[in-house]
Amino acid sequence: TTTATTTMMDELLAQIDELVIANEARSWEPERVEKRTMELLLDHSKLCEDESVSQALKLFAHAKILSVKEPLDANCEKLLLKAVKLSPEDEKIWNLLGEICWRKGDLIEAKKCFESALEKKENVQSYQHLSMLYRQMPTKTAVERLNQVDESIAIARKAIKLDATNGHSWFVLGNAYMTMFFGFTRFENHLNQAVGSFEQATQDEQENKHNPDLHHNRGTVFRYTENFQRALNAFRLANEIDPQLLASKQLHDVVCQQLKTTQEHIANKGGLKQKKIDAHIETLCGVDKEQKSDALSVLVDGVNEGKHLLAKVVLVLTRDPMPQVLLIVDKEGTFGCLTVYNAKDNVIKMGDVVRIQDPTRHDVDVKEDKEVGSISYPSVRVENPKMVERNGKLLGDRNVVMSQLAVQNKS
């Protein structure tokens, strides 16, 4: 009967969706994906014998099965072009055709397809794709690029307005804000919007359990804000979902190494003998007589307006431009960590005396982590190198390089 056939087609489409989701999340081995693809193609061929199923739907289902293949099966686009002629009002066909054009690198045609889908019916998927696409479209100027990222945010918000429970829409919005922050503005509210959007995305069980890029990008933002415990947990989740996502494992290991190395050097005072430490303190006290400055002990958590931290760089622990990690000692002989973001490599060297205006204290406190255990030490964070005096001279614009962080996944 027609009803039974419709039910069978609905079941087939649900199974195809399961295959597509598993393939995109990389949660199935390639062999399993290939085997399931062949099974569904066989089921599809049997169902196609029933003339009560619309030809457009048959073509769409066939194309969607083929869409998981790598490299892209040329028949996929041909099937969809036929389907869209037979059923031009079906937004699902336009959306899949847009995805295929995107994979082929034809961003202009992909954009037209998603816009056509929205003309037929307002839907979350088209808005999600367009938001991603706007951040990939080529531009001639930085202003054009900024405007496109701004439009990407606005489009992602339209998806959320349609369905605030869709975790992938929140993920897309988080990526848009992440791009805006690291690519352009450095406005704290944009970073907070990214974090908030990613956390909303984790409330969707499907997104939380099957999207490794969500957790990778969460980890990247938490690492930048030096919330190391949450960064480690996020990178681990990404790696558990997709063990092939090497970037998450690499960043996880970088954070672990940074935490352990920094704590060890602070604990053993950089391997310096007391005589050398006393010499550093004497140098700093001499500078302090000329310019009244502050020690780590007087700094409170957060921004210390009106304060000036005076310290000597004992060791350069990493030269990663995001951030450069330095071991410092203050005029009271207290050792701590200084993380400097957005500065050119080698601007601050071992032996330099640094004086930091309005220093931000952000102590590290990791408790009972399964990889690094418990780690805590005093730390000061510098996002704007122009707030730093090095050996009596302010670091100028020429020493500033904005840190660039990649958004994982095309979204």
Short summary of the structure?
By secondary structure, the chain is α+β, with helices and mostly antiparallel strands. The chain has 15 helices and eleven strands. The strands form two sheets. The protein has a nine-stranded mixed sheet with strand order 1-6-9-4-3-2-5-10-11. A two-stranded antiparallel sheet has the order 7-8.
Describe the structure.
The structure is a single chain. The protein is an alpha+beta fold. The chain is built from 15 helices and eleven strands. It has helices spanning 2-25, 30-47, 55-66, 74-86, 91-103, 107-120, 124-134, 142-162, 167-185, 188-201, 205-210, 212-224, 228-241, 246-267, 274-290, and strands spanning 302-303, 308-318, 324-330, 335-340, 353-357, 360-361, 364-369, 373-377, 379-382, 388-390, 393-394. A nine-stranded mixed sheet has the order 1-6-9-4-3-2-5-10-11. It has a two-stranded antiparallel ribbon with strand order 7-8. A hairpin with a 2-residue loop joins strand 10 (388-390) and strand 11 (393-394). The protein is elongated. The model has no long low-confidence stretch (mean pLDDT 93).
